[in-house]
Design brief:
The protein is mainly beta. It has 24 helices and 104 strands. Helix content is 15%, strand content 40%. The protein binds zinc ion. The site of zinc ion has 8 residues, from loops. InterPro entries: DHS-like_NAD/FAD-binding_dom, Sirtuin_cat_small_dom_sf, Ssirtuin_cat_dom, tRNA_Anticodon_Mtase-Reg, WD40/YVTN_repeat-like_dom_sf, WD40_repeat_CS, WD40_repeat_dom_sf, WD40_rpt.
Amino acid sequence: MMHSDGDGSTSHAQKQNDDVSQAPPTHSSISATKRSTNITRSSETAEFPSQDFDDKLSSTGSVFRRDDFVGGPVTTATIRFPPKHIANALDEEDKTAKHNYLKSLGRIVFARGPWIESHPLALSYNNPGRNNATKSSDEDEIQCMTQALEDKSSYKTLAFGGLAKNRGGTSTFETVSGMIFPSSSPSALSYLNDSSSRVESCHSINRRISVVAFGGRRISFLSGGGLWSNSITNKNGKDTAQDDFVSIPIAKDGSLTSSYLEVSDWIHDVRLLNAELQQGNNQSAFLLAMGMTNNNCEIFGFYSSTQDEQETLQPTRLQCITCDVRCITYSLSFHGWDSTSVLSSDEQLPSLAVASGTVFSEIVVWDAVVNSQEDENDEESLDTLVKRWLANVTAGANIIIKASRIRRTSLHRLKGHLGSIFSVHFSTCGQYIASTSDDRTVRLFHLQPIDESQTEWKLIWTGWGHTARVFDVSFAYPSHALGEESSHPTLVSAGEDSTARIWSPLQTQEVSHPLRGHDCESVWTVDVCDGIIVTGGNDGCVKLWDLDNRMMEDKDIRTFVVPKDPPIQSTHSEEKITTEATTSKPRKKQKKKQKLSGQLICGMELFKCHRLVVATRAGGLFSLDLKRNTWTHHKCWHDNVISLEDKSKLQIDPTTGTCLSVSPSAAKVIVGTTEGWLVVASLDSSCDVASHAFRCPSYRPVQSISWIDDDNVVVFYARGSVIWFRMEYIPLPLHIMTLGTPGIPLSFAYDYKQSFYIGDSRGNLAYFDIGQSERNEITPTSVLKAHAKEHVTAVTVMKSGIIVSVGNDGCMHQSKVANNGQLQRLVSIPVPATTGLKHIWNDAILGGFYGNDYVVMDNINGYEFVRIPTGGRQKRQDFHIGFSNGCSHAMAICTGQKDGSNIIDFHSSHLFDETSTLPVPRHQRITTTYNIGHSYHAETINDVTWVKKCGVKPAYLLSGSNDCSVKLMEFRNGTFASAKELPPHESCVRGVCTSSHPATNTSLLVTCGGKLTMECYLLDHSSADMDASVTALCSYRTTGSKATIDHRMNAVRSVPLPSNENYHFVVSGDSEGNLHVVMVSELPSDRKTTIGEILKGNGRPVLCLELLTYNWFLLAFVGTTGGDIQLWTFSIAKLIGCSEASEDGHRQLGDVLSSTASCEFKAHQSGVNDLSASIIVGESESVVICSVGDDQTVSTCLIHFAESGPESLSCEGIRLSTTQCASASALKAVELILDDSTFHRVYTSGHDETVTLWKLDFARLSLKYVTSVPIGTEGSCLDCCQYNHPDGTIREVVAVGGLGTELLSFNLTTLLAACALIEANSLLITAGAGFSADSGLQTYEQAPLSYREMCDPSKLVEDPLKFQQFWLAFTRSYLKTKPHSGYELLDQWCQGGKLPNLLRQSDGSTPWWVYTSNVDGHFRNTRLASFRESVCEIHGCALEFKCACGIGFANGEPRLGWQKWNEQVQPTDACRETKLVMTDDAISSSLLLCSHCQLLPMRANVLMFHDTDENILRSISVERDRYQAWEATVEKNIETSGKRFVVLELGCGPTVPAVREESEEVVSDCAKIIQSDKSRCVKSGSVSFIRINPKHAEISLSTSEPTRMISIFSKAEAALKEIDRWIDLLI
Ligand SMILES: [Zn+2]
C-alpha cells in the first residue's frame, strides 16, 4: 500500500510542467489594444466565508448530493466472512454444508480513495450493461443461490466522514490505506474446529465496530456495512446485518465529537484488543495499537460513553513506543493481539511484535509490547497503565493518564532486499515474514533457532519474476487446508507490472504464476481469504481469483498418447513409401520419410469436456474417456464405407482426411477429405453400424466441418464455398454460400434468424441473408473488410444482434447489419496482450496467442484464465477447448513427437476434475463472479464531456485519460448504468468533445491526444443497445509534420455547422500552438472528404479552447501556456460554402479561414488550464468567458462585439476581471452555466480536490463564492448537464474527472425557486392541507368519517356538547402540535428580512400575505411575527370560538327549520362581537357558553358545510377584503413599477381545490397584465409560481414569459428547507 510514491503524485507534477513553454513572453495584453479594442481590468481577491465546507453530503447540510464515484485507485481490498457467533448460531451439523453456507455469506470490502465499499461476495458485478458472459449448464442452481443472497445490499461510505475544517493546503479527504475488521473473520473455516468464543462477553460498542479504517494520520471506527456488527443472529443464521455504514463518533475536546481521530504520525498497521471490565459495568473498552512511519507505535485505550444520546468512543493515549532503530518506514506489520479475544483484568498484556519495512532495504523486527514480569512494578509500564486506565473506566473516574514514552531495542535486522520495503507481513503462526520491495522481488524469511536460547530470521527464499516494483504480498492458505497453516506457505504478490503472482516458495517448483487482468499498471493490494485471491489497483477494479483453480492448473495436466494406428491396409500408403524408397536423395528424404511414417492426425475434438475424439490419417478413430482415462478404439473411419446416394461400397483413402467434427449428441462423427468426401462414422461401439459417405462432386477439398445440430452440418470448402447440409436419408445441400472473395472461409456464425456470417482468410466478414434467397446458391448480401487482411478466426452474434469477430490482427471487431441490409462497422478494439486471436466463446471469452503461449481471457472482466505454452500460432496444432460456467474450462492440445507419435496434453480447471467422486463444492461456483466495479480509467482523466440530446434519455459521459483509453458511460437516474470502451489511442487522450444538430438523433464524438491524432465517432441516440450505438467515422492525422508522443493535441471542441445537418466544425489546439480546423461529416460515405487545415497561433502550446456560434460567426477562444486567450473568428457563410464545395472534394478550408487571431489578451500569469464561454442571454452583443490557471485565479472576461456585415466581426471592448486566490492550488477546470435563472453559475475544480461553485455578477463582473464540496479525486476536468429526475425535479449534475470520476448533483428546481424568492418584491403564500399535514396534523383525506357529519351547523342543535367537544378536540390538537419548521423559515424570509427585496413598507404594511384554507391557526402562532396582520383564512380558524347567535340566520333572515333555535336567540351586537381565543386552559369538558349572553353555546370560528352564520362569514370577509386590496396593489405594482411577484403554493391538493384555484387565478391575472404590457412595449414586472406538492405539483397554466412556473414534487417542509439552504448560500 503506497502513499507517496505512486504514479498519482508524479503525474501531478508532470501535468503541471509538461506544457510550460520555455519561450520568453513576447506577446502581451497590448496586442488586444493594438487592434483598437479597449481593455479594462479589475482584480479582487476571492472571499470565502469563514464557514465549514459544504461537506455533510446527502445529509441536511448540503445542497449537493453525491450521485456516483467511479474509478480511482483501490488501495486496499479483502474478503470477510461471518464471525463465530453467527457460525455458532447455525443449526447445520454438517461441517461442509455449514462452511459452504458461511462462505456464501462472504463480503468483499475495499477502499477506493476516501471511500469504503462493501459488496456481497456472491452477487454478479460484471461490468454493468453488458451481457453477463457466464452461461452455466446448471444455471438453475446458481440462480437459486444468488436469489437467496439477492436481498443483500452493497454499502458505501466516506471513511473519515469528511469533517474537514481547514480550507486549502492538504486534501480534505484522506485515502484509506488499510482496514481491520474486529467483528468478522478472514476465513469461513477458522472457527469450525473451535466453537467457543470469548468475544461474546463484550459489550455493545466493541461488537458494533465492524471496520477500523486508517489512512494518513487518521483512524476511524465504523459499524454496519453488512459486516455482521451489531447483529444478534437468529437461529437459522439468515439475519445477517443488513445495515448501512455508520461512523462511530470519537470524543474530542469538550463536548465535540469527530468521525475520526487524528494522531501524530502516518499509520501503517493497527491491532485491536478487547478489554474486559468488571461485571455489571455496561461500558466497553478496548486497546488499539498503531504502527507508524517513524518506526514507532502508539497504544490508545478507548471506552464507550454516552454523549448527547450517542454512544461515543473516549480515547486515551497510554503509551508511545519507539524503536531504537530510528528510520522512516514504508510499511509496518504487527503480530499478536487478536481482536476476537478479550483481555481479562487479571491477565498480562499479550505481546505484540513489529516488523517494519524501512526505506533502506532492511526489515527491523522488534517487540512493541512484551509479555514479561520484568516491568511489573514499573509505574510507566504499559501493563500498569492499562490496569490503571481500566480501573478508572470501571469506576467511572475522570481519567487523567499521562502517556508514557519508552524505547525498545530492535531484535533482528533482516537483510536481503536491495531497495525500499513496500510491504511486510507476518504469517499467522509468526514464524515467517514475507516482504516486497522496489527491487522487484518477493522474499520470505523464517525464524530459526541458533541455539537453545537464541533465534534468528533467515532469508530462505527470493522470488524473481515481477518486472516492476512489488507493492504487496499476502500469505495464502488454500481452502482445503481448513485454516491450518501449511508447512510450506504459499504467497501471492502484486505490483506495478499489472500482475499478481502466486508463489510456492518451498516446493521444488519455484513458479511465479502471473494473474493478468487489471487494466492498470499498479496493482496496489492483494489479500487471500479462504482460497480466494482479491486484488485491487489503479483501474478502480477489484478482482477475485480462485487460488485453488489457479494452482490446479499446473497440477492437473494429464498427458495421453494417441493409440497406435491400426495396420495400414491402404495401397496408397504403400505406394508412397515405395516412391520414397526409390528417390535419389536418400539423406534428405530419409528425414521426410520418418516424418511421413509417423502418425498424422486429421482431426480432434473435445466433447463436453470429458470425451476426446481423434481421427488419424491411417483411418484410426479413437475416443478418450477423460473420467476413466481410457481409450476406446473404434472401427476405422474409412473401412466399409457405403455411399449414401447409391449404397455402393466406397474406397476412401484415409490419408486424404482433413478434419473431423463430433455431432452434438456425440453419436457420430464426420471426417472430411481432400477429395470432398464427408464420411459419417458411428461412435457407438456397441452396434456395428457401417460408415456412410457423401459429397457434392463440384466442391472439394473439405476445409472444416461444424454441426449446427444433429441434423444440420456446415461444411467449409477450400475454394471459398460453404455448404449447409441437412442430414436426411440422403444429405441435402440446403444452402450453398459462395464468398466471392479471394479468401478461404474460416469461421462462421449463425443467429437462427436466417442470418449467416462467414469470416475468411483475407480479413473479410460476409453476411448472407439465407432467408431471403429462393435459390439455394447464395452470394453475400454485404462484405466488410474487418480484420486488415488477416485471418478472421472466429465470429459470433450477440443477443443484441452485434456481430463480434476476432482475427489474427489481434483485434475484436464489432459490426451490425444496418437498416439498408449492409454490414456496418462499429468499433474495432485491440485486445491487450495478444497478437493473434483464435477463438471466441460466450460473446466475450477470447482465446489467442501471445508469443509462444496460448491465452484464454475474459474480455469483459479482464481475467486471464489460462496461459499455456504451445509453440505459438505458427506451429501446427490440433486443439480444442470446452467451456462451461464462464470460467471452467478444459483444453486439449495435440502435438506431434519426434518418434512419430502424438501426445495430447489435457488441461482442466477444478470444475472439470470429474475423476474425483466428490461433487464440485458449491461455493467455488459462486466465485465465478470475479470483478467488482467498472474497469475505468487507470490514470488521470484529462477531459470529460456530457453527451445529451434534448428530450433523449439517457445521457452519456465521454471521458479520455492519460492511459490512452476513451470511455463512454451511460448515465441513468443519477448513476452510471453501463460503460462502453472506444478504441484506445496510441498515446494519451487529452481532449474529448461532442456536438449535435438539433433536428437529428445523433451526436458527433471527437477525441484527441498524443501524436496529433483525432478520432471521430457517431453516437446514435435512438439505438436501444449501447454496443450498437457508436459507429466509427474517421480519423484525422496531420500530414507533413512528424508527430511524436510529445507532440499532441491538448484540447478539442466542435459545433454543428448551421444549415447543413451532416457537418460539424471541429477545432483542436496542439502543443506547438497550432489550431487544427476540421470539417467532419456524419455520413460514413463522406469519410474521405473530411478536410483539415492548420492555423498558426502565437507559438505557445494550446491548453484549452471553446467554440461558440455567434450570429453568423463561429468564435474560437484559445487558452495557452502563456496565460493568453486568443479569439479566432470564422465566417459561417464561408464555411458552408466550403462544405458544399467539398462534395466535389477540392476546395480547401484554408481559403476561407483567416490566418490570424481577431484579438488576444492576457488573462493569467501562467498557463490557462481551462476556459468556458457563453453568449449572454438577452444581450445580443456580448460574450462572457471564464478561465482558470495555475496561478490559482479565475478570470472573467466580457467582450462586446460590433458586427460589420456577415464577413467581419470586431471586438469593441474587453472587460477583464480577475479573482485572485480562488483556490489553494492550481485550478484545472472551469464551467460557466448561463440559463434563465438569475444565478449565473461558475464551477471550478483543481488540485485542491474540491469543486467550488461561484455566482457570476455581470454588472460588477465579479465572482461571489457560493459553496465548496470536497471530492474524492483531484479535479482535472469537469462538465455539467441537467436532467429530469424521476422525482419530477430537474437536477444539475457535475461530473468531475481526475483519478476516477465523481458525480455531484443538486436540485436545480429548488435553486430556481430560491432565485425567484430572492428577487421577489411581493410574496403570496397559499397554503393547503398538505402544509398543515407536515406538522403531523390530519388532512381532509385522513379525517374520520364523522368529520363530514359534524362539519354541519345543524349538529349544534341536536347535541351542543357533542358538537362542541368534537371541535374542541381539533382545537386541542392544533394547540398541542408544534408548527413545523417551514413556518419559521417563512417567518425569517418575511419579517426576518432574509429575502432582501421583500421589505415591510414604511406604513407598516407587508409585501407578503398568506392565503390558506387551513383552520389550525398555525400562521397566527405567536412566535411568527410575519403573519399576524396578513393572513387570510378562508375557512376561518378553529382556535377561535364565537357565540352561536347567528347560526340560524342567513342574510339576516331566519333559516328554514331553525325557528325553534332562533326563538331563544336574541342576537345582539355584543354577542356578535364575542370571540374566545382558545388556550389549553380554556378547554373544558362542560358546555362552553357565550360570555356575553351566558345562554348560547360557543361554536368554532370555522366555515362549515351550508354555514350561513353571519358572525363567521363576517370575520372571514374582513380578512378577505384586506387580502384582495393587497393583491390589487401587487398587480398594479407589476404593471407600473416593474415589480417582481412570487406565488408560493404549499401543499394544496386537488381534493379541496379552493386555494389551488386562487393561486392559479392570481398567477393568470398577473400573466395577463404582463402580456398586455408586453404588447404595449411597456417593461413590466414578473410573476413566478412555485407549486410545492408531493404528488400534484404539476402546473397546467398556459402563460407566457417572463412568468416562471416551478413545480417541486416534495413535501412542503422539506422543500422549504432546501430552498432556504440555497437562499443562505446566495444572499
Ligand atoms: Zn351570546
